[in-house]
Each structure stands twice: as structure tokens, then as C-alpha cells.
Backbone:
């Protein structure tokens, strides 16, 4: 009997872990846009730091990210326990903020010059500030590095909050102990994954330079290829992250507005019945509509924010 009870306990544990893994997988899929933006942003944050300080800075930000999640996860569980009705509104707000942030990134990219305007994210210095810091012997580089770290941690707090809120919407109906397990898995996996990749990306240049100096012609070519590839990788991550933000944010808004989601689902099913290409057009149509909804939502939120700022300035 004791053996049967032990194996039954193992079966329950395996079932629980399987449920947590499934919940975590769904949450990761929904938060892909935020993860991509987090990865691109943190890789950019380390740019301009001396080579021997890159990994310590990444490690410091990673520890700050874990602390952020240690604060946010209990808050999310408390909301799920005491005010489960608030999950959907918070999810909608998080989705709208994702869309707004995507629009902000695009407008900043095309209408602001990096050397003349403030940084895109809090704590991220402009190119002019970096050059001044390196040329001015009176500038405390250690203080500048600490400021950069705290800026990255503050930005990570916003991105982590988005991840937690979106994840909470995925498994809000699950028991609290399963939610806790899934949050722990997501927090650790995302922090290790994002900052591990950031560390690898920021060291690509060093690897390329090291191989260029080798006598082996194959390594020399690989080194040149890496130096060419590294900046393009950062650009790709930034573009893909922005696109995914519109996609994820748009899907959240669509799911929150039942009539809109039903209509889009109806159009998607109709497109899916087309001969030969139906299997592709149905999915693409829904994705395209989600992106359009995301862009329109971001523009609407941007208009509200700018209008609020204008009213505040007039009152001031």
C-alpha cells in the first residue's frame, strides 16, 4: 500500500508539472512580443560599455530583473485571489500599452535623431552623451554605468509587469498553486533566456575580432561575417519585437471585445475555406487584422497621451 501511495504521489507531481509546463508554454507564446523587445532593448543598453564591463553589467541587470519579478508575481497572485474580475481590464490595459509602446518606437525611429533628442527608454543615454562621457576625463564612468544599470532595471520592471499581466490572463482560471508554479517557471526561464542571449549577443563583436586576428583564413572570414551580422541581428530583433508587440497587443484587444473577435474569427474561417491556399490565408488574415488593430489601438492611446500632456501644460 505504501508503494502504491508513493507512485500515486509521483503521478500527481508529474501531472502538476505537465500542467505548469503547458501553462508556461501558452504564456510564452502570448508574451513573445515583450520578450523580443526586452531582448533587443537590453542588448542596446550594454552597447557603448567597455568590453571588460559588459558581462558584469548584464549580470547586474539580470539580478534586478529577478527582483522585479519577485515583487510582481505576489502582486499578480494577490489580484487573482482577491479581484479576479480585474484580470481582464488589466490585460486590456497591458495590451493597449504594448501597442502604444510599439507606435512610440516607430515614431521615435523615423522622427527623432538619436544625437539630438532624449533616449528612447529611461536610463538609456544618447550617442552624444556616450561620446561626451568617453572624452571628458572628469566624467565618472562608474557612475554612468550604474545609471545605465538602474535605467535598464526600471525599463525591465515595465516589461516584466506586461509579461506577468499577460501571463495572468492566460491562466487566471487555474488554481493559485498552479499559477505560482507557472509564474516561477516563466520568471526564471525568461530571465535566464533573455539575459543569457544578451550576454551572447554583446560578445559577438569580441568573438569576431578575435577570429579576424587568427592566421586561419576560415576563422578570418567567419570573424568578418560575425562583425557584419551582429548589428543586423540587433536591428532584426528590434523590428521583430515591435511587430510582435502589435500582434500580441492587437490579439489581446480583439479577445477583450467579443463582437470584434467573433467577426474576425468568422472572416478567418471563411478565408480558410478557399481552395489550395485556405490553410494559409485564414491564419494570415487573422494575424494581419490583429496587427492592424494593434497599430490603431497604439495610435488612439498616443492621441490620448498627447492630448493629456497638452491639457496639463495649459493648466501649468
Residues:
Amino acid at each position: 500500500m505504501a508503494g502504491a501511495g508513493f507512485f500515486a504521489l509521483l503521478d500527481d507531481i508529474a501531472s502538476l508539472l505537465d500542467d505548469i509546463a503547458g501553462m508556461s508554454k501558452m504564456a510564452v507564446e502570448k508574451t513573445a512580443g515583450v520578450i523580443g523587445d526586452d531582448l533587443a532593448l537590453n542588448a542596446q543598453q550594454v552597447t557603448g560599455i567597455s568590453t571588460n564591463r559588459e558581462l558584469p553589467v548584464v549580470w547586474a541587470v539580470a539580478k534586478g530583473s529577478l527582483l522585479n519579478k519577485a515583487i510582481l508575481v505576489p502582486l499578480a497572485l494577490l489580484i487573482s485571489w482577491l479581484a479576479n474580475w480585474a484580470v481582464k481590464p488589466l490585460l486590456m490595459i497591458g495590451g493597449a500599452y504594448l501597442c502604444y509602446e510599439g507606435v512610440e518606437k516607430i515614431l521615435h525611429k523615423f522622427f527623432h535623431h538619436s544625437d539630438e533628442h532624449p533616449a528612447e527608454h529611461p536610463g538609456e543615454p544618447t550617442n552624444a552623451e556616450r561620446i561626451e562621457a568617453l572624452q571628458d576625463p572628469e566624467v565618472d564612468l562608474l557612475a554612468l554605468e550604474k545609471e545605465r544599470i538602474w535605467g535598464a532595471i526600471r525599463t525591465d520592471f515595465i516589461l516584466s509587469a506586461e509579461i506577468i499581466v499577460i501571463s495572468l490572463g492566460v491562466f487566471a482560471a487555474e488554481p493559485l498553486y498552479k499559477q505560482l508554479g507557472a509564474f516561477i517557471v516563466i520568471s526564471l526561464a525568461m530571465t535566464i533566456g533573455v539575459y543569457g542571449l544578451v550576454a551572447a549577443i554583446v560578445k559577438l563583436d569580441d568573438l569576431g575580432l578575435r577570429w579576424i586576428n587568427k592566421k586561419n583564413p576560415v576563422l578570418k572570414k567567419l570573424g568578418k561575417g560575425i562583425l557584419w551580422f551582429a548589428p543586423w541581428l540587433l536591428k532584426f530583433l528590434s523590428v521583430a519585437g515591435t511587430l510582435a508587440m502589435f500582434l500580441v497587443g492587437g490579439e489581446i484587444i480583439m479577445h477583450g471585445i467579443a463582437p470584434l473577435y467573433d467577426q474576425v474569427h468568422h472572416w478567418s474561417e471563411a478565408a480558410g475555406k478557399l481552395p489550395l491556399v485556405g490553410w494559409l490565408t485564414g491564419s494570415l488574415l487573422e494575424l494581419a487584422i490583429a496587427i492592424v488593430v494593434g497599430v490603431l489601438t497604439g495610435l488612439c492611446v498616443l492621441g490620448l497621451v498627447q492630448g493629456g500632456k497638452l491639457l496639463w501644460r495649459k493648466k501649468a
Remarks:
- The mean pLDDT is 75.
- Residues 15-315 form one domain.
- The two ends are 76 Å apart (CA to CA).
